[in-house]
Amino acid sequence: MCRIIDFAPRFLFLIVFIFVFVEGKGKNNSPYSFSKDLDMKIAGVSGGLLLGSVLVDYVSLDLEEIASLNSDDISDYDIRAIKNWDLNSIKMSDLLLYSSIAVPGLLLTDKIVRNDYRNFSLLWAESVFLTLGITNLTKVLVGRPRPYLYGNKAPEKYKIKEDNRKSFFSGHTSISAVSCFLMASMYDDYNPDSKFSSYLWVGAGLVPALTAYYRYDAGKHFPSDLVAGYIVGSAVGILIPKWHTKNSKVNAGLTLQMSGKIKTHLFYRF
C-alpha cells in the first residue's frame, strides 16, 4: 500500500498533464463528458489531500506506548478484532488489493471502451486518486492504533512498523471497492443493455468485502475501519462516472474559497 501511495502523486500529475494538453474529448459516442474547470478542481483536491497526508505530523507508536494501550477504550462492535493476527491473511489481502486495482482495465477488452480510452483513463485516475487522498489523510489525522497492537500474537518487529497507527480507515478495502465499483458502473454506461451487468455488480460487491475480511482476520483493521473504507470506495467508484455521464442527473461542484476552505454541493435532478 505504501508503494502505491509514494507513486500516486507522480502518476496523478501525468494524468492531469494529459487532460490539459491532449486535444480531443474522445469519440462522439462516448457516454462521458468532461469539464476542465471541474476536473482540474478534482485533481487539485486529490493532490492536496495526498500532499496533506505527507505534511501532517504523524508519528508511529513505540513499544512503550503500545504497552500502555487499553482495550477498554475499544467499542463492543470492534473488540473482537484485537485477537486476530495472521500473515497469510495479510498476503491474501495484498493480492486482492493489487488484483482489484487492475480490474477496471479489463474493460479495455471491449472495443467501445478502447475507442474511448482517454475518457476511460481519466475517470479511472480521478476515482482512484480521490479515494487515495481521502484515505491517506484520514489515516494520519485519526491515528488509530491497529488491532494487533493490543494482543500478544504479532511479533515485535511488526508491532513497531511505521504504519502501526493507521488503522482508520482501511486503504485496502477503499481502493479495492473504488476499483471494482468503478468497473461495474462504467460497464453499465458503455453497455446499458448488457445481460451481464448484474453479475458484475455482484462481483464488485464481493471482492472488496473479501478483501475486508482478510484485513480483519490479519488483525490489521477493526470492523468499523472496514465499513468506512467500503463506503468511501464504493461511493467514489459509483459517483465519479455517474457525475460525468452526458445528461447526468447528478450535479456536484467544488469551490475553493478565499479562506482556503473547500465548499461542496451535491444534488440529484429528478
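the 2nd protein, sequnce then structure:
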Amino acid sequence: MMHYEDNISEVTDANYSVYYKCGGDGSWSDKQLHWHEELEIICYVSGESRMICGRESFVPVPRGIYVVNPYELHDLYSEDSCTRHLLLIGKRMLRDFGCEKLRFAHHVTDPEIADIFARMYAENERGDEYTKNALMALATEILVRLCREWTVSPADQSSDESESKHSLTASIMEYIDRHFTEQISVGSICAEFGYSKSYICRVFHEITGLTIARQIAARRIYYAGTLLSSKRYSVSECAMMSGFSSASYFSKAYRKMYGRAPSDNGEEEE
C-alpha cells in the first residue's frame, strides 16, 4: 500500500529501486497510517510536524534522522510549512546488501547522515548526466552507515524464511485494509490464512513491531479521523462506520493515539 508523494525523484538503475525527494511547502500528510516494503529514511530540515512509527511517536527536530523499517505502520504529517528529505530504498537493494532482515532504530542521531542528505539535495539540484549515479552512491553511503551503527536486531533467519514471513505480513496488512470496517479479529485472520494464532501473531509482531489488534485499531482510528475531518458525521457515527464496537471505545483509542478527544475536532459526541 504505497503512498508516494508527488514529485518524488526515481533514482532506479538496472538493479535497484531508490527514490529521493526534498520538499514540503505548506501543510501535508500521508493522509493515513500506511506501510510499504521499502526502507524509508527521513532527514528533517525545518518546520513543525509529528511522526508515528510502529509503537513510537516523535516530534522531529532539525537534522534528525528518522527510519521506517519495511512493513512498519507509520505516518508523518504537518499542519504548518516544513521541509524534509525523503529516501526510499527498495527490497532488492536491501537483500543484496545483506540487510533485508535487519531492523533499524527509528530515531538516529548521526550528523554525518544529515550531511549526506544535504549533498543529495545539492546533487539533485544539479541535475546533469551524472546525477543519477551520484544519488545512488550517496544512498548507498547512508545505508552502509545505518547497517554499521544503527541496527536494533540481527539477521538470524534464512532468506526463504524471511521472505515467507514478509509475504504473510503483507497479506495480513492488505486483508486488514480491505476489511477493517467489518468485525474482524485475530481469530478471523487466522482462519483466513490457515495459521495458528500463536504463529501468526508472532510473525506479524516480528516484522512490524505491532500486534494485529493494534494495527486493526490504528487503521480504524485513521479512517474515523478522516470522517471527522469531513465534518459530516458525529463522533458516534464515525466510530460505527470505522468498525468500532462503541463510541466510548473509539474515543479512548483516539485519545491514546493523538493525546486529545475526537470531539476536539469540532464534532459533538452523542
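The longest strand covers residues 39-46. Residues 1-7, 25-31, 266-270 have pLDDT under 50 and may be disordered.
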